[in-house]
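Title: Prediction job returns without error message
Component: structure pipeline
Severity: low
Priority: P3
Assignee: unassigned

Description:
Job completed but the reporter wants confirmation the result is attached to the right record. Sequence as submitted:
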Amino acid sequence: MSGRESEAGLDAAGPDTDGRDAAVPGTERRDAAGPDAAVSDEARAASAAGAAFIAVDLGATSGRVMLGVLHSGATDGDPDVVLGHGAGGAARRGDEASADDAARAVEDGPARVELVECGRFPNGPAVHDGGLRWDVEALWDGIVAGLREAGSVAARRGLEVRGIGVDSWAVDHGFLDDDGALLARPWCYRDSRTDAARERVYARIPFAEHYAVNGLQDLPFTSVFQFVASAAGAGKTEWSRAAQVLLVPDLITYRLTGRRVAEVTNASTTGLLDARTRTWSDAHIARLAEEFPELGDLRARLPELVEPGTAVGHLLPGIREATGLGEVPVFAVASHDTASAVAAAPLDHAVPDEPRDSVRSGAQNGTNDMVPGAAAYISSGTWSLVGLELDRPVLGDASREANFTNELGIDGTVRYLRNVMGLWILNECVREWSEADGEPVDLPALLEDAAREPGGRCLIEVDGEEFLAPGGMADRVRAAIGRRMSAAGPVTGAVRDGGGRAGAARGDRGPETAAQPGAGAPSGDRGRSSAAGSGVEAVPETRSATVRVVLDSLAAAYAQVVRQAGELAGVRVGAIHVVGGGSQNDLLNRLTAEAAGLPVLAGPVEGTALGNVLVQARAAGALTAHDGGPATPRDLRATVRASTHLRTYEA
């Protein structure tokens, strides 16, 4: 899912922003060539000069259109050049620039990306036609308006728009009829209709068989469960009338270009992709169709797969007329927003001497040795995606029992991770409190109050399915606190040991086990806590105390998942990178560092939009390696580091 869209992802400054590696198809990663293949700095600067790319970045609570302006590493110090973000992390609007930005611009080095917000619009599921659905037409209106504004900004600044890319959350999709028209609003993954479908599927095809093919964790809303739910029932269902299925970013790309494709990073969340081959699993699809005849010709409904960086097509004439843009190419980026965010996670920053290809499963290599020096990532927002970037999936029994997922990334990589509920719980509480007050809650002040609360008094299972649905969240959190207190009784003076490490791993399959109560409480001199099975200190029924429990619990869950991921993949984790809107939450970053016993590096805030732009820039030839060949993930991340202010929280 999406590690983005978090209004609770704040420090004491600024509004919320969203959390979001790439190759040209058919190319291999390349090291820098020798002098005979070198390309001059002037030539590289010329390839980037005046290039701009538009990122359409759709999240569960809002969508944005961002103009990404590529600047060469050696710029002339023009005060209109705005590179990256300030300490607050927010993308800038318009053409304003600071003296500090201009000073940074004159230094030679990697290319830099400036992000200009050209449109922001609300999003969210609403009850429509029998359940929770997404209003795609409202999203489309916001996208078109944002494209129009991006074109205007580019024209004013004399920039050439050289590409457009779309990313969004995962699993959700639209059904097209024989004429290519959308049959109905897409269902939202939070709708309860998939609850029974998951059990029906597992009764006929056990979870272990699914995992051996797709490597996905057990989540109730995986696309395959949604397909089964859509096909159920008598008469003409939406499924029976559907000629093709398009995931949300592919649906928008289709409207822009008229071409239907499925980009692999998002397609890997459907449950129908082979995690080893990065292709549709015909055998698994046939098995599903055999067990569920109502699915009909499932394979025929799935479009062709493309890799990140593929040029899908050019803007249709009607879109060009509506936006004022020219015949701009539209690229398939890493369209799962987390894949784009991981592409922009400057992981090499923490382990500059460790080549990525050495990060692999010790168990698969027939050894128990741990590969040293990897950095974990947390794409932090409404959902938090916590894991490692690997060069192959981890599909063994232990990985399945720990409920880890293998989603695809750019350049043949695998995002080995687990979904954690993220800041959804806090966002919902804040929304309810704002409605009750009749005015917005002062979130920075609330987080400051929460920081003053004693830590580690109570940990709740933030991944409990009871927290999935919107509404009544604060009451559900208090109820969970009450159950925890009733089960354990009050603390009588037990203080957490100084290690701050997460507790023992759980082998349960269900997603509700990602944050075991009592495991991995953040340390700190003010925090009373307990090991698993001990008691908890009474928690006042105040907003700040409730927020502190939620953030303590999230930090504990993050620490546990990072440690488990390292153990299962045979990787010794040395640091954690937090990207996305949640990277602005100073308190959560600090608690995560304490709980994991590892340094946390926060930023970029606009990770997904930045990753989206970088994939396009490389595919268009505007961003290259020093030898003039395709930029490697290391090159892309050098651009991220040059464009971003990173904050470090020590354990």
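Comment from assignee: result matches the submitted record. The chain has 20 helices and 21 strands.
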